[in-house]
Design goal:
Number of helices of chain A: 6
CATH architecture of the domain at 4-31 and 94-207 in chain B: 3-Layer(aba) Sandwich
Helix content of chain B: 10-25%
Number of strands of chain A: 11
Strand order of the largest sheet of chain B: 4-3-2-1-5-8-10-11-12-13
CATH class of the domain at 4-31 and 94-207 in chain B: Alpha Beta
Strand content of chain B: 15-25%
CATH topology of chain A: Glutaconate Coenzyme A-transferase
Strand content of chain A: 25-35%
Oligomer: heterodimer
CATH class of chain A: Alpha Beta
Largest interface: A-B, 57 and 54 residues
Structural class of chain A: alpha/beta
CATH architecture of chain A: 3-Layer(aba) Sandwich
Structural class of chain B: alpha/beta
CATH topology of the domain at 4-31 and 94-207 in chain B: Glutaconate Coenzyme A-transferase
CATH superfamily of chain A: Glutaconate Coenzyme A-transferase
Helix content of chain A: 10-25%
Shape of chain A: globular
Distance between the termini of chain A: 52 Å
Radius of gyration of chain B: 17 Å
């Protein structure tokens, strides 16, 4: 089966209203920019988005929020978005906050075929409410289920026609975990090459996890906090 | 009384050669500016980096290279990148030697509240719950009192918790304290601050079992 698609619009052709999506990235670093723009254009609604953050007002998942396409956001930190705040306070948006390590590991569990994990994060806090817990060697852990997502949208630095992916620097973050976790995983890459051109020793995500791949364009790669030092 | 930089400077004295350290946002970030000479520590950034270096020179910012505060940064020789599950895996497995983070409240049994104020907009816990649930050694960097001059060192936290029985040490603008079975044990006081003042500004049980020296930097 051919994995290579021409662009984001074609790759997301069957994403529909009410789907659960995973979106890679930490802040605005390593987000699937092209897929987000294509989703905005397609106008699908009532999306459940699993992503560490919710973008900023005019970039990242913020674009989908502004367009009222998101029904529920599952994230660990959402502080950078005024439209998000407005919708949340108005009851237009449902939000589930999850510890960052739990979020990452619930993605990992899905990709490893493990139905649930035990983590100490959140024990004794409101995160533990209603959850099964268990004591191992005298320490309490919460049981957290593997995520299920209809689609995972990830961004990599390089990819090949077999779907293998290599990420750059801290733009890796949640991308390889979500790539493993989607029912259908769509990868956008800055540079798409023929199978055989990437060194197999350097692959982060094996192509078996990637169903669709395309070379993105016009990456803005916006910086959220530009900090520099004097030379 | 210490300013934020001096709190960071005092915490930096707790660093030991070879430590892997996670620094939270705010005062903890400043600790990186005071790493003692001759001591080699590796900074972990939970978005997926070991070996975090200083901010880049102007013009050398790289959008793909940021820290957990979403600031542009650099790497140092020996650094490595990894995904978010491995990042919290190394935290959960106790590989990170020291975590320094801020707090709104700490209780005398080592509970910490740092992420949510009821009635105000909740931004999320980020990685704080994972860090406090697993770190071997947790130092809290914070002011001794809040903006209303109320103690932040309490018998029991009033705000929603981030983690329980986890804080080991606290460095505030007034004092260095450690958490014991019986409450906050006063270890050091800030220059120019009296033990009486620390007593009056600590709501939780304060243990003073010796002459309290001034902090040294």
């Amino acid at each position: 089966m051919k994995k290579v698609y021409k662009n984001a619009g074609e790759a997301i052709f069957d994403i529909s209203d009410g789907n659960t999506l995973m979106l890679g990235g930490f802040g605005l670093c390593g987000i699937p920019e092209n897929c987000i723009t294509a989703l905005e254009k397609k106008g699908v609604k009532d999306l459940i988005c699993i992503s560490n953050n919710a973008g900023v007002d005019d970039f990242g998942i913020g674009l989908l929020l502004k367009n009222k396409q998101v029904k529920k956001m599952i994230a660990s930190y959402v502080g950078e978005n005024a439209e998000f705040e407005r919708q949340l306070l108005n009851g237009e948006l449902d939000v589930e906050l999850i510890p960052q390590g739990t979020l990452a590991t619930r993605c990992m569990a899905a990709g490893y075929g493990i139905p649930a994990i035990y983590t100490p994060a959140g024990v004794g806090t409101e995160v533990a409410e209603g959850k099964e817990s268990r004591v191992f060697k005298g320490k309490e852990y919460l049981m957290e289920y593997a995520f299920e997502a209809d689609f995972a949208l990830v961004k990599a630095w390089k990819g090949d026609t077999a779907g293998n992916l290599i990420y750059k620097e801290t733009a890796r973050n949640f991308n390889p975990l979500m790539a493993m976790a989607g029912q259908v995983t769509i990868a956008e890459v800055e540079e798409l090459v023929e199978a055989g051109e990437l060194n197999p020793n350097e692959i982060h995500t094996p192509g078996i996890y990637v169903h669709r791949i395309f070379q993105g364009n016009s990456y803005e790669k916006r910086i959220e906090q530009r900090t520099v030092r004097k030379g | 009384m210490l300013d934020k930089n001096q709190i960071a400077q005092r915490i930096a004295k707790e660093l030991k050669d070879g430590f892997y350290v996670n620094l939270g946002i705010g005062i903890p970030t400043l600790v990186a500016n005071y790493i003692p000479e001759g001591i080699n520590v590796t900074l972990q950034s939970e978005n997926g980096l070991l070996g975090m270096g200083p901010f880049p020179l102007e013009g050398e910012e790289d959008a793909d290279l940021i820290n957990a505060g979403k600031q542009t940064i650099t790497t140092l020789p020996g650094s490595s990148f990894f995904d978010s599950a491995m990042s919290f895996g190394m935290i959960r497995a106790g590989k990170v030697d020291l975590t320094v983070l801020g707090a709104m409240e700490v209780s005398e049994n080592g509970d910490i509240a740092s992420w949510k104020i009821p009635g105000k907009l909740v931004k999320g816990m980020g990685g704080a719950m994972d860090l406090v649930a697993s770190a071997k050694n947790i130092i809290v960097a914070m002011m001794h009192t809040n903006s209303k001059d109320e103690s932040k060192l309490l018998k029991r936290c009033k705000l929603p918790l981030t983690g329980i029985n986890c804080v080991k040490k606290i460095v505030t603008n007034l004092a260095v304290l450690e958490i014991t079975d019986k409450g906050f044990r006063l270890l050091e006081k800030a220059p120019g601050v009296s033990v009486e003042e620390i007593k009056s500004k600590t709501e939780g049980n304060l243990i003073i079992d010796s002459e309290i020296p001034d902090m040294e930097f």
